[in-house]
Each structure stands twice: as structure tokens, then as C-alpha cells.
């Protein structure tokens, strides 16, 4: 029950647009646009997205670890080689990054040993407009 309450608190923070947890900036959003936030909840062994679609442009993916083990998060747009990284996130913590997301399908996964093959993978769609 405590984990559920913590997860809901993080979700409310994300919806309200308030900062949560640490930030590792991979790329600056920089255009003055308000970034979209994407909350990704990591657990043994799943990734759950609060929303499955975002509008293209500045974004702040947030990795909330509600599990017992550390988890990181990698993001890559299909058809592209660049991989964005959210660092290893301790249980009960949130880490995030800022980047500009282009349209298309993105794959997200935990890169720690065997986590991806155990089901820690999700897909996110980025559209021109929502």
C-alpha cells in the first residue's frame, strides 16, 4: 500500500508539472516550449507508462523505481541509432532527463543485466500533435 501511495504521489507531481527527483540533462529542451512529461514506472520486471503518447518537441521522461532493485532507463527512436539514458535509479527514487523527442515510435527499456529480456521494455508513440 505504501508503494502505491508513493507512485500516486509521483504521478500527481508529474501531472502538476512540478519537479520530482533528480535530473540528468542529456539535451536541453531550450525552445521555450513547455516540455511534455512522461512518467515511466519501473518494477520487477515491468515498465508501465502513465501515457502511451506524447506530442513531439521538448520532453522530460521520468523513471520512477517502485521496485526493490535498481533500474535504469534507455530510450531510442526506432530507425535511429542514438540512445538516451536515464541513470540507474534507486528503489523509491525518480530520475529524469530533458530531450527533444521527434515523431515516431520509441522503445524504452532497462539495460541492467537480463532486465529487458524479463519484460522491462515498453513503447511510446510521439505524434506531431496530440
Short description:
The chain is mainly beta and 130 residues long. The chain contains 1 helix and 11 strands, in the order H-E-E-E-E-E-E-E-E-E-E-E. The radius of gyration is 14 Å and the shape is globular.
Describe what this molecule looks like in 3D.
The chain is mainly beta. The protein has one domain (2-127): Immunoglobulin-like. Helix content is 12%, strand content 45%. The chain has one helix and eleven strands, in the order αβββββββββββ. It has one helix at residues 2-16; strands at 22-23, 36-43, 46-49, 53-55, 57-65, 71-77, 84-89, 94-96, 99-101, 104-109, 121-127. The strands form two sheets. Strands 1, 2, 3, 5, 8 and 9 form a six-stranded mixed β-sheet that branches. A five-stranded mixed β-sheet has the order 4-11-10-6-7, with no helix packed on it. A hairpin with a 2-residue loop joins strand 2 and strand 3. The longest helix has 15 residues, at 2-16. The radius of gyration is 14 Å and the shape is globular.
Give the percentage of residues in beta strands: 35-45%
Helix content: 10-25%
> What is the subunit organization of this protein?
single chain
Number of domains: 1
Describe the secondary structure blueprint for this structure:
Layout: H1 2-16, E1 22-23, E2 36-43, E3 46-49, E4 53-55, E5 57-65, E6 71-77, E7 84-89, E8 94-96, E9 99-101, E10 104-109, E11 121-127
Parallel strand pairs: 1-8, 2-5, 4-11
Antiparallel strand pairs: 2-3, 5-8, 5-9, 6-7, 6-10, 10-11
